[in-house]
């Protein structure tokens, strides 16, 4: 360890030297931090599906560099490729960003002999969650990690010491940042760290530009990576079998889970490209396997996932003797759905202690109004809908947060649908935000359209004008429109396809058979600049290709990398006179 810090002044109260502090941080401090990291070793899965060991079920993710998009990198290769101090790792919702960082944290904090080579060069790991609202600065983050190492060593001393050590900072969920965690992140970027320290920051793509701007304003240079989706059937099946074994503790049951997924329609299989979606499959198969036969889209699965949450709650309420549990569940979902909507509008997923207290009070009022005979604690409901995290030893209050943004969006959409059916409030009044915030509620609005199509067509017809205008303000994309039309009942497809006019002149990416089926309907309302087909041959063969090209005329269709010429030379493939087949 060098003496840069001692030379810079302001360090070592009581005359202690830098070497003393470095010794304490890298020995006792590391032990304390590692013990606290191990509190994340187990994961309680959603819907009471079970508890698993994170390291045992981790599925090796692949990433790609923005500079070399064709090359897939393992985690080890990712670390070897890092040349700059900061790496930004982006991934869509449910891609496994948090899981990835926790995996690194648990690997580092395990037995020394088991620490992988690419982590051995670091002396300390610091984990920062952007959803955190408690720790207002880096000193408070340090206190949670290391506690009090010795009587005469303060959090400030530890922080100064970390600047001289090789530290791996894991910053989770930039897209979930708030005003408190943003201040912590700015402080992290303002400080000068050891040249061999690294900062890994995860984010959703929609917040990537904001992160780039922040780094640029701080004069920081970063490398960009993207988590690849799990698109190969073999990898999907391996993921399901691994979780199945640990969820059921039964090899035969795990194989049955794997076998059921392998027999799904290839078009449906191709939708399960994220770890979170594969986990939903496992949970639904375990509890209500018969519903899987009805799946034609992700929306079908999302609705079954939502119904599974209600089933879990109903079972708990029935077990303690609550009458009409469905009615009480609907009332409680109204409380949490409104809250989910407000949180989405302001990019929040975690409750403050005051917010959770208020929601518990509101839920308690609904419970007491429903039943005065049976005593029901709010935890029966909240523990099913939210993730409850005990603080790391030395941390502050227990935190409650929505388990995943997709769950949050489904619950919020359920609230919006009920309000649209039960009240005369305008959609904008129900959303409770200015139109400028509608972009953050785009997924909710798309769920609402599909839900009204399924559950109350007359309300979809009556509210269609304001739904369409709100989706325009939300910046609906071509893929959104294709997915939305595919989710709706066939007799509503023509109406919902009017959204295609909002994507006029944009490129349309056709990624599955459902998209192929709806594009002819969309072309009646909007014309893209071009259509790019990204489909595996097995899926393409079963897609209604003829109907699509019949309306294209001279529009160019670019075949994506999954398809080769031989794969489309089938009786149903488009004639060359009808469509130009241009390799991408």
UniProtKB/TrEMBL annotation:
<feature type="domain" description="NACHT">
    <location>
        <begin position="85"/>
        <end position="207"/>
    </location>
</feature>
<dbReference type="Pfam" id="PF05729">
    <property type="entry name" value="NACHT"/>
</dbReference>
<dbReference type="InterPro" id="IPR027417">
    <property type="entry name" value="P-loop_NTPase"/>
</dbReference>
<protein>
    <submittedName>
        <fullName>NACHT, LRR and PYD domains-containing protein 3-like</fullName>
    </submittedName>
</protein>
<dbReference type="InterPro" id="IPR007111">
    <property type="entry name" value="NACHT_NTPase"/>
</dbReference>
């Amino acid at each position: 360890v060098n003496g840069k810090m001692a030379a810079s002044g302001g360090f070592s109260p009581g005359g202690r030297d830098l070497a003393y502090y470095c010794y304490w941080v890298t020995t006792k401090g590391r032990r304390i931090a590692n013990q606290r990291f191990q509190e994340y070793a187990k994961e309680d899965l959603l819907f009471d599906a079970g508890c698993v060991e994170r390291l045992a079920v981790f599925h090796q993710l692949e990433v790609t560099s923005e500079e070399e998009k064709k090359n897939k990198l393992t985690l080890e290769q990712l670390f070897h490729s890092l040349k700059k101090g900061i790496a930004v790792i982006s991934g869509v919702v449910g891609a496994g960003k948090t899981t990835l960082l926790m995996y690194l944290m648990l690997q580092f904090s395990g037995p020394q002999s088991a620490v992988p080579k690419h982590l051995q060069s670091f002396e300390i790991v610091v984990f920062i969650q952007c959803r955190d609202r408690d720790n207002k600065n880096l000193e408070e983050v340090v206190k949670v990690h290391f506690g009090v190492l010795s009587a005469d060593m303060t959090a400030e001393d530890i922080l100064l010491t970390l600047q001289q050590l090789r530290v791996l900072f894991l910053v989770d969920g930039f897209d979930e940042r708030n005003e408190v965690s943003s201040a912590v992140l700015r402080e992290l970027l303002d400080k000068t760290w050891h040249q061999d320290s690294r900062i890994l920051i995860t984010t959703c793509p929609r917040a990537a530009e904001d992160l780039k701007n922040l780094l640029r304003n701080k004069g920081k240079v970063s490398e960009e990576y993207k988590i690849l989706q799990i698109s190969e059937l073999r990898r999907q099946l391996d993921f399901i079998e691994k979780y199945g074994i640990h969820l059921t503790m039964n090899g035969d049951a795990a194989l049955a889970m794997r076998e059921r997924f392998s027999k799904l329609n290839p078009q449906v299989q191709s939708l399960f490209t994220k770890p979170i979606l594969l986990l939903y499959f496992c949970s639904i198969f375990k509890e209500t396997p018969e519903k899987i036969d009805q799946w034609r889209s992700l929306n079908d699965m999302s609705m079954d996932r939502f119904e599974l949450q209600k089933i879990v709650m109903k079972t708990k309420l029935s077990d303690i003797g609550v009458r009409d549990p469905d009615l009480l569940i609907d009332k409680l979902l109204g409380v949490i759905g409104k809250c989910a909507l407000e949180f989405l509008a302001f990019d929040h997923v975690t409750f403050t202690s005051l917010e959770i207290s208020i929601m518990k009070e509101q839920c308690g009022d609904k419970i007491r109004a429903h039943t005065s005979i049976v005593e029901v604690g709010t935890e029966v409901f909240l523990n099913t809908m939210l993730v409850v995290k005990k603080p790391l030893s030395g941390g502050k209050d227990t935190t409650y947060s929505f388990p995943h943004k997709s769950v949050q969006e489904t619950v919020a959409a359920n609230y919006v649908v009920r309000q649209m059916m039960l009240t005369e409030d305008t959609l904008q009044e129900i959303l409770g935000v200015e139109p400028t915030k509608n972009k953050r509620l785009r997924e909710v609005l798309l769920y609402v359209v599909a839900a009204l199509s399924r559950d109350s067509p007359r309300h979809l017809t009556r509210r269609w004008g304001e739904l369409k205008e709100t989706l325009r303000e939300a910046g609906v994309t071509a893929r959104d429109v294709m997915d939305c039309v595919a989710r709706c009942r066939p007799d509503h497809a023509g109406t919902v396809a009017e959204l295609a006019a909002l994507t006029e002149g944009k490129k349309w990416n056709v990624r599955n058979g459902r998209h192929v089926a709806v594009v002819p309907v969309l072309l009646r309302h909007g014309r893209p600049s071009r259509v790019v087909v990204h489909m595996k041959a097995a899926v393409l063969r079963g897609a209604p290709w003829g109907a699509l090209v019949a309306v294209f005329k001279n529009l160019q269709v670019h075949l994506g990398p999954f398809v080769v010429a031989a794969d489309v030379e089938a009786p149903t493939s488009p004639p060359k006179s009808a469509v130009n087949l241009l390799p991408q």
